[in-house]
Write a structure and sequence with these properties.
Helices cover 33% and strands 25% of the residues. By secondary structure, the protein is α/β, with parallel strands linked by helices. The protein has three domains: 200 residues, FAD/NAD(P)-binding domain, CATH 3.50.50; 114 residues, FAD/NAD(P)-binding domain (3-Layer(bba) Sandwich), CATH 3.50.50; 114 residues, Enolase-like, domain 1 (2-Layer Sandwich). The strands form six sheets. Strands 1, 2, 3, 4, 5, 6 and 18 form a seven-stranded mixed beta sheet that branches. It is globular and about 80 Å long. The chain starts with a strand and ends in an 8-residue tail after the last helix.
Length: 466
């Protein structure tokens, strides 16, 4: 073995924590370097605080809309400072339990604090320390991208990294960017009371999701009072009379709010790591990796956002474990290509595989069928008064290649469908699985059963009628 360690993990966010745990549990000598707080973006600036905020917003909305289930609605008395305190309490609880660095130390991981720099294929420098290792795994994640808007730096703005750090939540908000972060925060913030304008330069929100479902979700956001501006290009930002002003390229009336939130995407966090000096190839989305998650230096691997493949907590953890397996086991795994995701609005919007448009481009119109079911036809949605969503399943040559769910708990429902896509199942195959009734997953069964019924009709001449 080269050096004192089998593995040095750089970055203790979602991917790095899981990689370090896995490596230690299979008997490897592991060091993990973190320059800030263990837990990374997910715990401190992403999933955890945003979902805590969404939970408070969901409760406020349920109080206002209780008439839909026969309960007298009430306007909630919202204390934004209390919402913020609860969010931070959840973060603190996770930080002192699951993401506690002492828990890593207890299983044999040496946690090293400081800035890491790769100074050789098997050498990582942290301050005055030099860590010699057989392999390095980069899990440094990503940070918010900043758009080229005149005056933005001078006016000041928030990102997801700073929004949850403010002491006083802003009373009104303009959000630039209609991706998952922008859309989730827009709905949650509006439900908590403040005015929200959501600015997206493209023709739809959530550009990678199924357009028909995005249109339904956009309509819901507008019904709840979010001012959604599509095809709107922000040109200039300024501060006037204590408000942040955003001027638009089309000359539309400027948008004023207490604060601006920029949510236009992410960029890989690779600065100061010394990667280019080592000959590690970088691209626009991050570190270039091969099908085994290995960089152009064979002893250095990358996983998660920094690898530029998928920017999700769940895929970062999955890739990190795959990378460790590829380093130390005699067999090699291909980096996962199918990653489901979910935008945690209400209803949730989940996605796996191809949209209808993508499937037609790949397989041709004649081979593709799109199957849709409105939640108005499912009993669970009716009983819960949550029938605003729909299910869209995409097949090519009868096999499931795409699944899109706008529904309560869509993030739970999508896993069955993602597995079916991975295993190349036909839609009718899903009808052979007994689904619990009444659940939202029953919608999957209804669509699958219709495909099975259509096949059965082809063989109706075989039916014994006597």
């Amino acid at each position: 073995m080269k050096g004192a360690y089998h593995l040095v993990v750089v970055g203790l966010g979602s991917g790095g924590i899981v990689a370090a745990q896995f490596a230690a549990k299979i008997g490897l000598r592991v060091a993990a370097v973190e320059r800030d707080r263990v837990g990374g973006d997910c715990l401190w600036t992403g999933c955890v605080p945003s979902k805590a905020l969404i939970a408070s917003a969901r409760t406020a909305h349920a109080m206002r809309s209780a008439a839909r289930v026969g309960i007298t609605p009430v306007e909630p008395d919202i204390d934004l400072a209390a919402v913020w305190r609860r969010m931070r309490a959840v973060q603190a609880q996770i930080a002192r339990t699951d993401d506690d660095p002492d828990r890593l130390r207890a299983i044999g991981v040496e946690v090293v604090e400081g800035d890491a720099r790769l100074v050789g294929p098997h050498t990582v420098k942290v301050g005055r320390r030099t860590l010699d290792t057989r392999f390095v795994l980069l899990c440094t994640g990503s940070r918010p991208a900043v758009p080229a808007i005149a005056g933005l730096e001078q006016a000041g703005f928030l990102t997801n990294e700073s929004l949850f750090e403010v002491e006083r939540p802003p009373g009104s908000l303009t959000i630039v960017g209609g991706g998952p972060i922008g859309v989730e925060i827009a709905q949650a913030w509006r439900r908590l009371g403040p005015a929200v304008t959501l600015v997206e330069r493209g023709p739809q929100l959530l550009a990678r999701d199924e357009p028909a479902l995005v249109a339904r979700l956009t309509a819901k956001l507008r019904d709840e009072g979010v001012d959604v501006r599509l095809g709107a290009v922000a040109e200039e930002a300024a501060v006037e009379d204590g408000s942040k002003i955003l001027r638009m390229a089309d000359g539309a009336r400027p948008i004023a709010a207490d604060e601006l939130l920029v949510a236009v995407g992410r960029r890989a966090d690779v600065e100061s790591l010394g990667l280019e000096d080592l000959g590690i190839e970088l691209a626009e989305r991050g570190v270039v990796v091969d099908s085994q998650l290995r960089t152009t230096v064979r002893s250095v691997y990358a996983a998660g956002d920094v690898a530029g493949r998928f920017a999700f907590t769940h895929s970062a953890a999955h890739e990190a474990v795959q990378a460790v397996r590829n380093m130390f086991f005699p067999w090699h795994e291909q980096a996962v290509g199918l990653v489901p995701w979910c935008t945690f609005t209400e209803p949730e919007l989940a996605h796996a595989g191809l949209t209808g448009t993508e499937a037609r481009a790949r397989f041709g119109d004649a081979q593709v069928a799109v199957h849709e079911l409105s939640l108005e036809h499912t009993d669970r949605a009716r009983t819960d008064a949550e029938d605003e969503g729909a299910l869209v399943l995409v097949t090519a040559r009868e096999r499931l290649v795409g699944a899109h769910v706008l529904a309560p708990a869509a993030g739970e429902v999508i896993h069955e469908l993602a597995l079916a896509i991975r295993e190349k199942l036909k839609l009718r195959d899903l009808s052979s699985l007994v689904h619990v009734y009444p659940t939202h997953s029953t919608a999957v069964l209804m669509v699958a059963a219709e495909a099975a019924f259509q096949r059965a009709r082809r063989y109706a001449w075989l039916v014994r009628r006597r």
